[in-house]
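SEVERITY: medium
COMPONENT: batch folding queue
REPORTER: lab tech (J.R.)

DESCRIPTION
The queue accepted two submissions in a row. Attaching both inputs and their returned structure tokens so the on-call engineer can compare them side by side.

ATTACHMENT 1
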Amino acid sequence: MSIASEIIRLRSELPVGVGLCAVSKFHPASAIREAYEAGQRCFGESRVQELLEKIPQLPSDIDWHFIGHLQTNKVRQIIGKVALIESVDSEKLLSLIDSESRKAGVVTRVLMQVHVAREETKFGFLPEELTEYFRQRKFESLTNTHLCGVMGMASNTDDEERVRADFASIAGIFRDITINIAPDLRGFDMVSMGMSHDWPIAVEEGATIVRIGSMIFGDRQ
């Protein structure tokens, strides 16, 4: 299967209202261009240096999503260059994104990463930390950051019930924030979850964006 045919097939299978972020990390600009020519505009990168090398090589209307763990010392380098930072995993990082965006005169769109997976290695707010952040309305101090929703990953397991439970948990936290805790939040409407191996379950549980890499581009190069 070609990259273009995979993009077209995935788009036909995704329900209306669910966006596709093509995870292009570790793949060359030529592969991204092939997906772009098939109509794909949203691409996910997880390393700042790799992202910065690719941006000038590719069309300017690409929506770049930063999906990896973002180190605080790299924040300034991507402000104003990405459409969305999906992986905000601490209040410290969020505060820095806000201050750097203010200095740059831009508004940065972000997702709050929630940690529900069993692996200790994954990043993110614990569910109770995230709901407490909104309960205390700490987001009101942000001036140049727009909170667009949540992002999360399921446990790395073949246990489909566990994966489904993790996705249900992420979507449940999102609903709790939007319905019960901060219903006045505007534009907080994105749930990014699901990857190549588990995206159909994520969609069933409420994903509005899926992040798919190997299914489109093959194994990383």
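ATTACHMENT 2
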Amino acid sequence: MAGISIQAITNTGIFAQAENAKRESEIANIKEKIALDIYEKQLEPPLGSITEEQLEEILGKYGTVNKGEDGKIIGITTEDGYEILLKDIYEGGTTAEPLEITVENITSTTNSITIKITTNGNKGGTLEIYKKTEADAEYTLEKTATGEEATGLVYTIENLEQDTKYSIKIVATKNEQTKEVIAEQKTLKVQNSVTVSEATTHTATAITYTWDELSTIAKMISNNSSITNDTVEVNVKLNGETKTLGVGDTATVDSKKVRILGFNHDTLTTETAYDGAKTATGKAGISFEYVTFLITSAKMNSSDTNSGGWGSCALRSTLNSTTYNGLSIKDKIKQVQKEFIQTYNNKGSKTYSSDYLWLLSCGEIWNNGYNGGVTRGHAIATEGSQYKYYKTTLGSTTYNSSTNYTKKPNTSSPSKWWLRSPYNCSSVYFCEVHSNSSCNYDNASDSYGVAPGFSI
């Protein structure tokens, strides 16, 4: 009878049911203890929060903590071998799943930052994204996400400054829980560049760059040895925009019109003139000349002499002191080496001066001269070389021909303007551009227009 009774009880599955009931009771008991421990931890400041480390410490009291491939806690295995998942502890329990924020990826361009965020325990909550720079006192709210976005999103913060470090704060809030994470990212710096244009000609236009920007461009040109004094046009990439710049392009300085004569033409007096560093060419990147007279009437010397040439000229002294110091762009102008003839009838007397402002020579305008074309203009020798602007506009036009390209201050009512070259046949004359635009000469004590050149 006893054997029959035991078999009957076993066959009914009562033992299996009892075992399952015991297992479920023990698991429920452990889950309740864990939930209670979590709840007590959340009562501590900051109210409603619990860290991953604190959660792992609590779970470790009841078994071996299990983690996923991403390192996140997924549950425990008890001493009795029970597998308890973390999500099962929160379902219907007395506590909420702890908030976690993960910045999965963050990238930047020159004016934007894109951030990829995922959260745990934030379903039904909110997600806020803030930004600030090191110079900002407070964070600025950029985005508030709710619903599905609060559990994870990819967001791009736009209209940012280039080459600037930003602090990105992400805040998750659900019920009384708040979790905050801060990430830092720097926007990229715009890669500026200047390259030689494939164009062989250039149509002159008004320059839209500021003088600060032109100064930056000039330095880049000076650092590019492929740009020479025979380059007619360059491609400029500055602050994300690409434009061309070429000989003949015009700008204004203190309401006076100036134009580009050439690139990498004039040798810098100081090799480290650009921010204390040597450049690839040792040249001033851009050379200009005044189209409007900077001084409407001035003498080369107080008396009729060209003794010592441009180097001893009173007008040179004035231009490089009082006149230069009065210019709004004086800090952009570089000193360059200018070749000049010291003795009017001695072609071997050439030497160099160092100038901020200088008068053009016959040889910088024309490629021919009085002595069968061998010389330049009315000077006994060549001082410097022909600028690209005059090479493209005059070519081999003779020095004694009339052309609008050398008329100043305008073509409708041109006036005479001084050159730095001494006249080859007399100790009392300097060369000048006549009102008819041909090369001529006059007494050093006469007063004519001054249209100097300068380099940046």
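NOTES FROM REPORTER
Residues 1-6 have pLDDT under 50 and may be disordered.
No errors were logged for either attachment.
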